[in-house]
Amino acid sequence: MESIIKINDLKKSYGNVEAVRGVSFEVYKGEMFGLVGPDGAGKTTTIRILCGLLSLDSGSAFIFDKNIKKHIKEIQNQIGYLSQKFSLYGDLTVDENIEFFADIHGVKNYEQRRNELLEFTRLTPFRKRLADNLSGGMKQKLALACSLIHRPKIIYLDEPTTGVDPVSRRDFWKILSSLLREEITIFMTTPYLDEAERCSRVALMNKGEIISLDTPQNIKSSIDKNVAEIVCTEVRKAYKLINENTDYEIQMFGDRINIIFEDYKKDFGIVKEMLEKNQIEIISSRPISASLENVFIHLVS
């Protein structure tokens, strides 16, 4: 596969805080690559370095086989960037915002491209509406349209669905799938591990370091253990009880508990007996496949 982004031993600090600590990876042309991790993991710093908005302290970054330090202007003409915060102009209409970004990128005769993008993002009925009067999901779609007006080869998306309602999130993912068919490379950051499963490859990042990098399926398969999902009464009491009295790795997700076992039959029996002795009823239980969330918490802990 053809590498379109290559970074090697990338480091960036803010004073005494090491935001990115020797990160290395490649992104292939036409793939959707996800950089996944909690707030403070170093995701935004990494993506801003790749967009040329931050300088790196050491290491190297090559995009289109060009050194980002030496060819940043040339590189920026071929990339699009959607930041975490809505950065368009609220007092301009949808049409005017796209026109403004077309002018910034020197795009002439942009009208047809704008119409295509409005249709693509389903914003055509709202083209005369001020950006300030759009919903959160529509603002993100407008920001995406603006970042695509100059036909970039790579689009960087920094947590694009954070704070967006579930229906708009689903629409946004449909749009991204369509972009992949146009062979645009998508590099995105997200704190949502369920979203990361849609990526072709994922880098799990924590405290400035990559702790795992592979396809979502391979990462999930890397836990050679059994995962049990339990729904029970008094879930917090059950979590505390198992956590304090066993060596099992336990994770709580709302009203569910996930426990990672070496031997499902033997270990589940021990947990069941413990809960029943403490008058906690198991409503349902089942073995499940490990999720990216299970693996991430397992690797961090």
Give the spatial strand order of the biggest sheet. 6-7-8-3-9-10
* Mean pLDDT value: 90
Which spans have pLDDT < 50 for at least 5 consecutive residues?
none
Please tell me the CATH architecture of the largest domain by its name: 3-Layer(aba) Sandwich
Largest sheet: 6 strands, mixed
Count of discrete domains: 2
Report the CATH superfamily of the largest domain: P-loop containing nucleotide triphosphate hydrolases
- The Cα radius of gyration reads 22 Å
Count of discrete alpha- or pi-helical segments spanning 4 or more residues: 11
Number of strands: 14
> Secondary-structure element sequence?
EEEHEEHEHHHEHEHEEHEHEEHEH
End-to-end distance: 34 Å
In CATH terms, what is the fold-level topology of the largest domain?
Rossmann fold
Helix content: 25-40%
Structural class: alpha/beta
Amount of beta strand: 25-35%
CATH class value of the largest domain: Alpha Beta
Provide an overview of this structure.
The protein has 11 helices and 14 strands. The chain is α/β, with parallel strands linked by helices and 301 residues long. It folds into 2 domains: 3-216, Rossmann fold; 223-300, Reverse transcriptase/Diguanylate cyclase domain (Alpha-Beta Plaits, 2-Layer Sandwich). A hairpin with a 2-residue loop joins strand 1 and strand 2 (17-28). Helix 3 (94-104) packs parallel to helix 5 (136-148). The mean pLDDT is 90.
Tell me briefly what this model is.
By secondary structure, the protein is an alpha/beta fold. 36% of the residues lie in helices and 30% in strands. It folds into two domains: 3-216, P-loop containing nucleotide triphosphate hydrolases (Rossmann fold, 3-Layer(aba) Sandwich), CATH 3.40.50; 223-300, Reverse transcriptase/Diguanylate cyclase domain (Alpha-Beta Plaits, 2-Layer Sandwich).
